[in-house]
Amino acid sequence: MATTAAAVAAGGLAFAGPVPAAQAEPRRDAVQQSIDKVVGADRHPGALAAVRDRHGRTRHYTAGLGDLRTGEQVPVNGRVRIGSASKMFTSVVVLQLAGEGKVELDASIEKYLPGLVRAKGVDTTKVTVRRLLQHNSGLPDYTNSMFAPLGDFFPYRHVYLEPRELLDLANAREDGGPAGGGWSYSNTNYVLAGLIAQRVTGRPFNELVTTRVIERIGLRDTYVPEVGEQDIRGRHPQGYQRTIGTRELVDFTRMDPSWGWAAGQLVSTPDDLNTFLRALLGGKLLEPAQLAQMRTTIPLDPETKSGPGYGLGIFSLPLSCGTVAWGHGGDIPGYATLNAATDDGRAATLTVTSLNGSVIDDSVAADRGALIDAALCAK
Question: What is the pTM of this model?
Answer without folding.
Answer: 0.92
